[in-house]
Amino acid sequence: MADTPTAKLFTSVGAEKGEIALDPAVFGIEPNTAVMHQVVTAQRAAARSGSASTKTRAEVRGGGRKPWRQKGLGRARHGSIRSPQWKGGGVAHGPKPRSYAQRTPKKMKRLALRSALSVRAAADAVKVVDTFDWDGPKTKSAVLLLEGMGIEGKALFVLAPSDRIAERSVRNLSYINSLMVDQLNTYDVLWADTVVFTSDTVGMVGGGANYKVADDDFVRDESDES
Question: Residue 88 falls within a domain, yes or no?
Fold first, then answer.
């Protein structure tokens, strides 16, 4: 991967302003596919409710007496009408409430997230919006922005708490997901075809990475300076 990955920088109406340099420690590492797979698997497993439940023969009602005597009738012997082979009986080896959560170390989660972001950055699928200066929440504004950036398919908006207008503008679009920057995770990055940051949130990713957006990171077109 390139030592200094970049992403295109856009205005809130979808006009291209230039490029922004991305943190190589977050967007330019060699992806670890095995770790990404393990983290996504654990994340999806943790989302399962694990509430499926059945009753065993000890929990169903009835069956307190022997249905018929042991010998002499020519029928198979039974001790209860609530054993698993009877209609209305208990379930043998049925599901019980359980947790599907898997232990995933924090270092593994961070590596998986950086790997996923690096995959998207290498495919030129990371874009940055300078700032959302919309007057109010409008789905039309979000659609115009997506068209201006040339985004097709699913997209993930990584926002800051101050970007509530943008969050409300994209929530009616079924193919758009939005997250606060502290909620960013591997699954949602891989789910999206394009990841959209703001000039503020792009420097907040990576956990322990000491990186902040500076003026030197912005590589704008010369026409913008005139």
Answer: no
